[in-house]
Specification:
mainly alpha; about 70 residues; about 5% strand
Length: about 70
Amino acid sequence: MYVCLCHGVTDREIREAADNGISSMRQLGKELGVGTQCGRCACTAREILRESRTPDYLAMADMLAVPA
């Protein structure tokens, strides 16, 4: 799903950025441009970033990364 229409950023890209160490909206804005134009995406992007950093999400991502 597109989160930031101004910069064409998807929820998947935000999750990938979180997996690569992005942990704040400021970093996300510098890296992907999220929240730097009109700002309508900021709340949704912040929520995706927050949920991507939760232990449950990280455990699931680790489980899926292990080959069967």
